[in-house]
Specification:
The structure holds two protein chains of two kinds. By secondary structure, chain A is an alpha/beta fold. Chain A is built from nine helices and nine strands. Helices cover about 35% and strands about 15% of the residues of chain A. Chain B is α/β, with parallel strands linked by helices. Among the domains of chain B are: about 70 residues, no CATH class; about 90 residues, no CATH class. Classes of the chains: A alpha/beta, B alpha/beta. The site of one iron/sulfur cluster has 11 residues of chain B, from helix 17.
Chain lengths: ~290, ~475
């Protein structure tokens, strides 16, 4: 995988750490591969950090699953903190490794208050989560991991990717988060990217956003009722009822947006996230404001 | 279907079966669901998933996330870690009113014998700092505590002095009828940021009748206005007590609070103590109070719908217990009970008592809840055999009737009330009016949440914050 140079003007500065993963999520946009690539990327990332612009606001560590680096993850974080002391570090992890409290503690030691961990949760029901994550036991480890991260006072972004297998329980998930995971910094509901596994298995897991908007809105409302931070990513504004527009964020990565012809006459195009540039099809129900 | 039942309780409210787990999470389902759960024949797959996810049933014998559940329980009982936070100092029994239901058995304001000595104040403040709570509330009561300004000031100064080295968060509250808010009293309140908690029963004719004086209302409102001007509106709150007469006027009482600019009201029933025990039939009173509560509550909802801010505090407490994972500190609805765990009383007579009600019983020569002399050591008082005895009956998880009650997580234990109304600490729930009142009101609030969610949630979310 070729990595783009770190760029202060981009909002997507990523250190890719490995293609391996201990999950096998059915909608993963980076389907994991079993190859011994950790050292390769580690060396590459050290060079990239050393040559990065010093006032880079944010750096993201992704994979695959970055925690498969083991202790190398902490060396890399220490290097970032040394070289880029003002840069926020965002780790995208399935959280399972943090079921080991010592590993969560070590992350706190290395990253202190500069790290945030983004963790996907697929369902409040163990077996549904495990089916979507493609791995038995994933749910329990992820939840324990979240608790251990919270015990260390590490900021957490909870990510919920909507798909055909979990959208029915979005409101129940919101209650579950409110009751059991109230410590997360914020919850992000994310439209699914239709690439990777998502396209090949698309009939099984793909669902048009317009079909889950009611459940999504109910879930967002519930979390907001109890004053939890909540955001929506990757859902075009014209699919969302207006009162939920304030929750919609433009995009995670600026290079991922694209728009369709009818967006040209839309007065919300500036605020709207549009579509994934990588997506093979547009969504149903798009109409300009 | 193979799964294990985790401890949960259920009851029927309206057309629903309501299920509550050990940490107060609630699910509701159609009648007949409990039977399905027990017989392993749950029909609704989404309900099944919710039951597993929320710790009502488990697919393996010991849930893998038991530690998460334990942590949630620990959070709900966090008030125990915090230890005693509320410390009530009864400065005097002297009073300048003569309320028909006086719960403190007040003496005439010119009677000298019934005030706290300086020495006892000093001992009391020292005991307060023995609690390891980071937050200490020093609440001054009476009689009418403002009649003892010097003692009030002395108590605060002592606390401030000790706090130079203790560094706790101190809050002062003056519970006053607001008739005697002299410049002197106000200056002390201003200097030490004292909160004023005053009594106001409703419109003037009702208030005056309850208070046994012709001009009480005018004086109270004048006092409230003065206190708001000097201390700020947010430093002044009011408490109502529903006399038998009040029960006919729920709307008028709420409107009076609204008119005077209060944004919250605590619909409070009379307690069977003090002169109030003379009041006739308590059962009839309780039934009428429940109806009064519902009418006042609905009127408060109407005010909210019109865009006014008005919180009913009792409902807000229940809603927090019901809808949030957080600990709710409220001494009257706690298990283990509020006595000693969350509140201690330092009485004018030089003794420590278990609760406000306990010292009122003492006025009727019932010293059951007198813990001991203030001159004894804190440890001897708080860990005395008497307190240990009470601890056997202060958990509603462990007393008959409550232990399998679906509302247990939202309700509390009250050995003092059991003793004063039923003659034993343990109590008998089927005839307990404390139980009857709480059950009726909590069930009412639950049915609001279930049946009127979309209507009421926009209001409740502001009450809970
Ligand atoms: S945890 Fe992330 S990287 Fe791993 S399979 Fe799932 S989506 Fe892909
Ligand atoms: S029409 Fe295009 S720009 Fe406008 S809201 Fe829809 S997706 Fe966004
Ligand atoms: S007092 Fe009554 S309502 Fe409260 S827990 Fe006990 S039995 Fe239930």
């Amino acid at each position: 995988m070729k990595q783009r140079p770190l760029d202060i003007h981009s909002n997507d500065n990523t250190l890719f750490t490995t293609e391996q993963c201990n999950n096998h999520c059915i909608m993963c946009c980076q389907p994991p591969r079993k190859i011994d690539d950790i050292d390769h990327y580690y060396q590459q990332n050290i060079k990239r950090v050393l040559s990065a612009p010093k006032d880079l606001p944010l750096i993201a560590l992704t994979g695959g699953e970055p925690t498969l680096m083991g202790d190398k993850l902490f060396s890399l974080i220490r290097l970032i903190r040394e070289q880029l002391p003002n840069t926020e570090i965002h780790i995208l992890s399935n959280g399972r490794k943090f079921a080991d409290p010592e590993y969560a503690k070590a992350l706190k030691l290395a990253g202190d208050n500069k790290v945030m961990v983004g963790v996907p949760l697929h369902s409040d029901y163990e077996k549904d989560h495990d089916i979507i994550a493609g791995s038995k036991g994933a749910y329990n480890e992820t939840i324990l991991g979240l608790y251990n991260l919270a015990m260390q006072g590490i900021a957490i972004e909870l990510r919920i990717v909507m798909n055909k297998l979990n959208y029915m329980r979005l409101p129940q998930m919101a209650t579950f988060i409110h009751k059991n995971l109230s410590f997360v910094t914020w919850t992000a509901f994310m439209g699914m990217e239709r690439v990777g596994f998502a396209d090949t298995k698309s009939t099984h897991i793909w669902i048009e956003p317009i079909e889950y908007i009611p459940q999504l809105c109910q879930a967002v409302q519930l979390l907001d009722d109890f004053r939890h931070e909540v955001v929506i990513f990757n859902i075009p504004l014209c699919l969302l009822p207006e009162q939920y527009h304030p929750f919609a964020e433009k995009s995670i990565s600026d290079w991922k947006n694209k728009y369709t012809d009818c967006c040209e006459q839309c007065r919300l195009k500036e605020q709207c996230c549009g579509f994934f540039a990588t997506s093979t099809q547009l969504y149903t129900g798009i109409k300009p404001y | 279907m193979k799964y294990y039942l985790l401890p949960f309780k259920f009851t029927r409210i309206g057309d629903h079966e309501v299920f509550v787990n050990e940490v107060g999470d609630m699910l509701h389902a159609p009648i007949g669901t409990a039977e399905q759960i027990v017989n392993r024949t749950i029909e609704d797959p989404e309900l099944y998933k919710s039951l597993v996810a929320n710790f009502f049933i488990s697919e393996i014998r010991i849930p893998a996330l038991l530690d998460v559940y334990a942590e949630r329980l620990a959070e709900k009982k966090r008030f125990l870690d915090d230890y005693t936070a509320l410390h009530i100092f009864v400065l005097t029994l002297r009073c300048n009113q003569n309320c028909i239901y006086c719960q403190a058995s007040s003496r005439d304001e010119h009677c000298a014998a019934s005030s706290m000595s300086r020495e006892n104040m000093r001992l009391a403040v020292q005991h307060m700092f023995k609690s390891r709570s980071q937050y200490l509330t020093m609440e001054f009561q009476g009689g009418e505590p403002s009649l003892e300004h010097d003692l009030f000031l002395y108590g605060i100064e002592l606390a401030e002095e000790i706090n130079q080295t203790e560094h706790r968060h101190l809050t002062y509250v003056l519970c006053t009828n607001s008739i005697n808010l002299t410049d002197e009293v106000m200056a002390t309140c201003k200097q030490y940021n004292v909160l004023i908690s005053t009594s106001l029963d409703g419109p003037s004719w009702l208030h005056n009748q309850n208070r046994g004086k012709q001009d009480s209302y005018e004086k109270v409102v004048k006092g409230i206005t003065k206190a708001r001007e000097i201390l700020g509106a947010d430093r002044v709150s009011a408490l109502m007590t529903a006399s038998e007469l009040s029960l006919n006027y729920p709307i008028e009482i709420v409107d009076e609070y609204h008119k005077l600019g209060f944004t919250s009201i605590f619909l409070r029933a009379l307690n069977p103590y003090g002169k109030a025990t003379d009041n006739a039939d308590w059962e009839a009173y309780t039934n009428r109070f429940i109806e009064f509560y519902k009418q006042a509550f609905e009127h408060i909802i109407e005010l909210n719908k019109q865009g006014h801010v008005m919180i009913e505090e009792y409902a807000a407490i229940i809603l927090r217990k019901l809808l949030t994972p957080w600990c709710t500190g409220f001494v009257d609805l706690q298990s283990p009970a509020g006595i000693v765990n969350s509140v201690l009383i330092y009485n004018y007579d030089g003794y420590m008592y278990a609760s406000d009600e306990s010292r009122m019983l003492a006025e009727e020569n019932d010293f059951t809840f007198q813990i001991g002399k203030l001159s004894e050591s804190y440890e001897n008082l708080v860990y005395s055999p008497k307190v240990k005895e009470w601890s056997k009956v202060w958990n509603n998880e462990a007393i008959a009737g409550c232990s399998d009650c679906a509302l247990q997580a939202y309700c509390g234990a009250d050995p003092v009330r059991n003793h004063s109304t039923q003659g034993d600490l343990y109590g008998f729930r089927p005839t307990s009016l404390f139980c009857k009142k709480n059950k009726a009101i909590i069930e009412y609030i639950i049915s609001c949440v279930i049946d009127r969610y979309d209507e009421l949630m926009p209001i409740f979310r502001n009450w809970i914050r």
